[in-house]
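I have been asked to look over a protein record a colleague put together. Alongside the sequence sits a line of tokens, each denoting a local backbone shape. Please read both lines and tell me whether the tokens look consistent with the sequence. Take the sequence as given and treat only the tokens as open to question. I have pasted the whole thing underneath without changing anything:
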Amino acid sequence: MQIYLPIAEVSVNAFLLLGLGGLVGILSGMFGVGGGFLMTPLLFFIGIPPAVAVATEANQIVASSFSGVLAHLKRKTVDLRMGTVLLVGGLIGAALGVVLFNYLKSQGQVDLLVKLCYVVFLGIIGALMFVESLNAIRRSKRTGSAPKRRKHNWVHSLPFKMKFRVSGLYISIIPPVLVGICVGVLAAIMGVGGGFIMVPAMIYLLGMPTKVVVGTSLFQIIFVTGFTTLLHATTNYTVDMALAVLLLVGGVVGAQIGTRIGTRLKAEQLRILLAIMVLAVCGKLAFDLLVQPAELYSIGETGHS
């Protein structure tokens, strides 16, 4: 069943969009990521313009993340205090990111920037997570138990400390705010929840327990991506509601399924699966950037707009 998307100005299969939303919702529930790092490139692949894909996907992430958070709140695996500190940084970063996005759009460079950001960030983070997860699996097999987290690093010597009881931490609020700002900028420019950066940062930089990280990440993602969507809708007019609704329905259903799957897998297994997925998407995007496009005239067309 074909449906015409008025803002994107393309026709796509409605069931394909529902399926993509469901797939990304499952990932959201399993890994604590908004799923935008996967969905936004998938929207590029089916012909949605990057500016519309970024703004609309931020909207879909709100729904799938909200659905995932409800499941985690029932299990008491959300650190609301840490989530709020991350959120403060995230809102600042989102505002900065939308300003940068609008400037690059006016220069006609936004499509290239979005795709290059994906290749660079996904490549670096996917590789680091893959190597670390492999090492963690090896260590747990050798010792028969999961490796202990390092309790003290440079983060613990910073000022403005606060207690985070659910995470069992007493650390400075500076690193969480900085992580939030970075994630907010990425949410605005790349149409992602930023979970693929936030989850590793919360585990390795802040030292949070993996079981709390997923729910807390989703809590922060809801508000940052909601704010980002609002800014894109009012300044760029690039949010396609028909596209958003179809992705949203699939995402909400998928997030509930993903949360159930996630509780049955070990933390190391979850991380290595996420790393493989990140690297696969990065490889496809890099390939598309390097290979000569089938329709050469489309390059000239974007140059004139």
